[in-house]
């Protein structure tokens, strides 16, 4: 489907300073641009795999925590429950995530990856590792730990 954008592939063009001059020192603007660029690069790197960039983290968290419920997943991923519900519905339709009623609290569902979800995650792990290596090469090994610490601090305190 040439010409069609995939989720996460916003128009991430080279900044034209004429239009963004007033944003040069706005950290939030550059964080958003970096996230969009990262998502677009990740989408390109996974090729024909039909997974939105944000879904990788959900699959990884569910894989690492089989039986996690939606509230726990929301807290772990930093996503609000309404956004998460739509993503889980799509992951379920794709056959990647299975939901089972919680035996104690029947209002809740426990989540786990299906066999197809585990296979998809294994394939995505290879792509994610290559994507992270690319980001690491841009940041540089001497800045990696500091960069991660600053991002985590921003997430925790905002």
Summary, kept brief:
Keywords: DNA-binding, Transcription, Transcription regulation. The chain has 158 residues and is mainly α. The chain has helices at residues 17-20, 27-45, 53-64, 70-77, 81-93, 115-139, 141-157; strands at residues 68-69, 97-101, 109-113.
Can you describe this structure?
Residues 24-156 form the HTH marR-type domain. Keywords: DNA-binding, Transcription, Transcription regulation. The protein has a domain at 52-157: Arc Repressor Mutant, subunit A, CATH 1.10.10.10. The chain is built from seven helices and three strands. The protein has helices at 17-20, 27-45, 53-64, 70-77, 81-93, 115-139, 141-157; strands at 68-69, 97-101, 109-113. The protein has a three-stranded antiparallel β-sheet. Strand 2 and strand 3 (109-113) form a beta hairpin.
